[in-house]
Amino acid sequence: MPPIMPTLIIVIKGLSICKETVWDEKGSYIEHTVRKVRKVITVRSIRRLTPFDHSKDNQLNLWESKYSTRGHNMAIIEAKRLTKIFGADPKKAIPLLDKGWSKEKIFADTKLTVGVNQASFSIEEGQIFVIMGLSGSGKSTLVRLLNRLIEPTIGQVLFNGTDVLKMNPEQLRNFRRKNVGMVFQKFALFPHRTVIQNIEYGLEVQGIDKKKRKEMAMNSLELVGLKGWENSYPDQLSGGMQQRVGLARGLANDPDVLLMDEAFSALDPLIRKDMQDELLELQSKMKKTIVFITHDLNEALRIGDQIALMKDGSIVQIGSPEEILMQPANKYVERFVEDVDLSKVLTASHVMIKPETITIEKGPRVALQFMRDRGVSSLYVVDKGMRLLGVITAEDAANAIKNGSRLEEAMEREAPFATPDTMLNDLFELMSLSKFPVSIIDDNGRLKGIVIKGAVLAALSGNSGLEAGARHESA
Amino acid sequence: MNLPKIPLADWIESLEAWLEAHFDPFFKFIRMIVGETVNGLDTALNWFPALVLILLFTIIAWSIGKWRMALFTLIGLLIIENLGLWSQTMQTLALVLTSAFISVLIGVPVGILCARYGSFQKIVTPLLDFMQTMPAFVYLLPAVTFFSLGVVPGVISSIIFAIPPTIRLTNLGIRQVPEELVEAADAFGSTPLQKLIKLQLPIAMPTIMAGINQTIMLSLSMVVIASMIGAQGVGAYVYRAVTQGNTGVGFEAGLAIVILAIILDRLTQQVIRKSKSV
Questions:
Q1: Which of A148, B4, B29, B184 is the most buried (most CB within 10 A)?
Q2: Using CA atoms, how far apart are residues B238 and B250, in angstroms rounded to an integer?
Q3: Do the domain assignments include residue B191?
Q4: Residue in A173, A189, A192 nearest the CB of B278
Q5: Which domain holds residue B258?
Q6: pTM, full prediction
Q7: What is the ipTM of this complex?
Q8: Hey, is the C-beta of B184 within 8 angstroms of any chain A C-beta?
């Protein structure tokens, strides 16, 4: 008897999902599911009054992951050909965009301004997705299309598979109240409300009762480290603190997605860096999906998991920071990234290569043989768990054979090492002091790779054929 | 030029006659409401002994503003009492407060609608220009036709003359709420009403209060004109003094109006300042 009730709940929840997603390209499939599910309801509804079963939560999730479109690629937000044209009769410009006309040409011909031109991307859950571009590139418009603060001209925004553009005002309000938070460039704090009242705002409009929302707001305030300031007014706070309040307000309703529109651009550089660090820390704690808008490439590279680079309303390239830096899609991106100090962006993990190793039990003779076979002049000595113990050179190995000593005695133990997330900038000194390549070990002392000078130089010169170049020199 | 003159005057008069014929119950209803409000307020104000009210006003001035304002209120009202114009001044105050109250009651919502709907604003703005620039004497006549003689047509013409600042500044105040704040309110899922009550009205409050202050001042400036169609009060004293060439009496009554005006102005200004500092 008990397992039947959960089935019914799953079915009902499932129906509501299906109703909202039938427009999708996977629509036919989902409609099919709905029909099948309806039949189940008619059979099961007789048993409505069966006691509640708590296992339903798990089953629900199972069901959702199985049938909703979300389960497919874990994209929480998907934009498809999202376009915004400003001006009277904006649809007129759509065929021109299809023809590939430029923003200038369309404006000269029709007086219509292309805000965002057919942007398509998908953002995975828990990702920091950075939209970057110079002012006027349409990035702030694009982020507002996602929660319809600006109404898109055409295109789709899918949130967990639901088309945001098809929501009625009520659904849209609920979407904004529960699923997305937003942080603004100029903070946009309400000057007539105290800090805590500002943070409560999103909860207040949802009708959450006073005590509960105060509690939630206080949690949020604590998260951004502003406890004790709850009764101050925004104008009594510094810029950095104001934006913390903005962040707390954005996080107060525990949204799935946080939209941050140039959130740190108005802060001075040192505070900006602190805020970036804190955001990264928050993100690693809370696993929020964040859409972050910035015009600052270094900021984008610093915090982005994925970066979309925009120019004149179009997305020019989407990729990880490394991809943007190492494989610029075109001249524009190339010029954009040419001034970046790569040594402050790339980490050891980007340039390290696989080391030649030997386990400690082997003798010096084997070591020498290994070196000959592989054409290298030194080997990294590790234990069976790949923990780094030392380095043995050909010379040392030869001496060891002469003296009859073991590998353990012959190897050098003083080799420079660093962790994989060390910036190249910080590796330079280590490299200059040692005759060996810097070995990269993780927190457990396991050898992950080595960094040789050639690979670093190749990376800094923006050479994408990094691996190949590195290999040549490794001997 | 042999074009016939547009018979505008005839049209207006037939419109007036038509309105009078068909909307008489409506006008009677308005007359009753407005008349009762003014008379009720008048009776209430005159029910208290003058000194008690003077003390009360002084305390109000003290609690809203500083001691200087309280002192001015005390001395000014004592002068009015001394001149023997107390009861008339209270009649005038009743008229002014009623027309200001009705102006706010109508003006703030109209202003809100203007801020919300651009097309509505486009209709209302020229109407407000018309109301403010048309000489007040011109609408005294239809006011008398519809509401007969007495204080009611006085209140009505005061409202027509005094309501535009409240509408304009409510509209302006709401439109001046920074775009990013409105956007933030939207981004967190406010309904239009929540946005209005929780954000736009509080932020616009100083501007709206400035409009209300203007409205009070303008309706005070109408009291003499209103007395021409039978509104009682200190305005009637001024009017009588002017027609009889009685400079001294005219000055005394005028002084009472000035004192009342300053007190009302400073009090509302103080309220504006307070609403700004929040």
A1: B184
A2: 5
A3: yes
A4: A192
A5: 25-277
A6: 0.71
A7: 0.79
A8: yes
